[in-house]
Amino acid sequence: MSQHLLITGANGFIGRHVVRAALARPDIRIRLVRHRGDLAAVDEDRVRVVRADLGDAASVDGLCRGVDTVVHCASRIGGEEAELRAVNEAGTAALVADARRHGVRRIVYVSTAAVYGRGPFRGAEPHELAVRPRSVTSATRAAAERIVLAAGGTVLRPHLVYGTGDRWVIPGLALLVRHLGAPVAGAGVHSAVEVSALAGAVVGAALASPDLDLAGAHHVNHPVPVPGAVLMEAVGGVLGTDGAAPLDPERARARLREHPQALHHLEMLTSDHWFAGSSLWRLLGQDLGPEPAEGLARHLPWYRDQLGSAVHAGR
User: Fold this and answer.
1) 271, HSE (Cβ side, Cα atoms, 13 Å)
2) CATH 3.40.50.720 is right for the domain spanning 3-161+192-222+274-289
3) CA distance linking residue 39 with residue 49, whole number of Å
4) Which long-range contacts (CB under 8 A, 24 or more apart) does 246-255 make?
5) How many CB atoms lie within 10 A of CB 233?
6) What are 169-182's pLDDT values in tens digits?
C-alpha cells in the first residue's frame, strides 16, 4: 500500500534533495507545497503540487487532508522578526494543527543545531543540551520545534549541511576568507552531513514503521566531525588561496569588526560544534554518507563553479 507524503520547503536546498530521495521510493505519493517559484520537473503521476504560504495560516487549512506523513523542511532564514515569527512559528503551528485534524501519522521537522546557541559543544546528545538560541531566526525555529514535539513529532537537528545547492556553509566561509584575505588558524571541530545523506535520513524517518518510536529531537550528522582546518582547506580550493599563511583568531576578529556577518562565521568556525550523531542512523538503518572531509572533496567542483567564477571576475 502506498504512503502519501507531504513536503514543505520543496524548493529549498534541503527540500529539493528530500524530494529526490522520496521519489526514489516507488511506492510513495508526494504532495509538494510551493509558496513561490517553480519546482524542478517531477513525475506527475505520483506528485501533486499545491500552493500555500506558511505566513498565511488560512492557506494551510486542508493541506494535510489524505496525507500519512508531513515532512516540514520550510523555514524562513533572516528577515524581520515579524516575518520570522509568522512563518517559522505561526506557520508551523497552523501546519501541525491541520496535520492533527486530518490524522497524520507522523510529522518530521528539519530544524538546526543552531537552536543550541554558540558552542563549544563536544560529542553531546540532544538530551544533554539546553536550547538557547542566539538569534531571532534560531529562536523562531526553536519555537517551531516545541510545537512539533508537543504533537509527538520528530525533530532533526543537523549542524553543517554541505553539497550541491549549499548557499551557507562553504559560501559563508568563503565570505570570511575574502574579507580576511587568508584562512584562519585555531579552528574547532564541527559536525557535518552531506545533503543527500541527510535527505535519506529525513525520508527514512518519515516512512519508518509506526512501531519505531522516533518522537523527540535527534542529531543527524556524520558521527565523524570535520576539523576546521579541513573546512579552510576546502575554501582555499574554491577560492584559489591555497598556501596563504593563516591568521590567528584574535587578528581575524580585529579585521572583521565592521563585517558582522563574516564575524558570525568566524565565531562559529573557531568554537567546537560537535554533536553525537550516530543513534538515528542506527535506528533507521540508513546510509550516513561520506565522512565530511571526503564528501567536501567530492563537491569541490560544484563549489568552484558557483563561487570561483565570481571570485576571478572580481579580481
Assistant:
1) 12
2) yes
3) 9
4) 246/182, 246/183, 246/184, 246/185, 247/180, 247/182, 247/183, 247/184, 247/185, 248/184, 248/185, 248/186, 249/184, 249/185, 249/186, 252/180, 252/184, 255/179, 255/180
5) 17
6) 999 999 898 888 88
> How far is Cα 41 from Cα 255, in angstroms, rounded to an integer?
45
The H or E element that residue 212 is part of is none
Please name the amino acid found at residue 20: R
Q: Which 3 state secondary structure label does DSSP give 124? A: strand
Residue 268, judged by CB atoms within 10 A of its CB (0-12, 13-18, 19+), counts as: buried
Q: How far apart are CA 10 and CA 32, in angstroms?
A: 6
With 0-12 / 13-18 / 19 or more C-beta atoms within 10 angstroms meaning exposed / middle / buried, residue 57 is middle
| Cβ partners under 8 Å of residue 2, min gap 6 | 27, 28, 29
If we measure between CA atoms, which residue out of 107, 100, 149, 153 comes closest to residue 6? Answer: 107
In angstroms, the Cα distances linking 273 to 91, 140, 190 are 29, 21, 5
Task: Convert the pLDDT of each residue in 296-306 to its tens digit.
Answer: 999 999 999 98
Contact assessment for residue 90 and residue 57, using Cβ atoms and an 8 Å cutoff: yes
Grid coordinates 537552536 are at which residue?
A: 115
Q: Which three cell numbers stand for residue 111?
A: 530544524
Residue 313 has pLDDT above 60, yes or no: no
Asked if 180 contacts 247 with a C-beta cutoff of 8 angstroms, the reply is yes
Does pTM top 0.90 for this prediction? yes
CA distance 56 to 219: 30
**C-alpha R_g of the chain:** 20
**For residue range 40-86, what is the model confidence (pLDDT) as tens digits?**
556 568 899 998 999 998 899 999 999 999 999 999 998 899 999 99
Q: How many CB atoms sit inside 10 A of residue 308's CB?
A: 17
∠84-88-93 over CA atoms, to 5°? 135
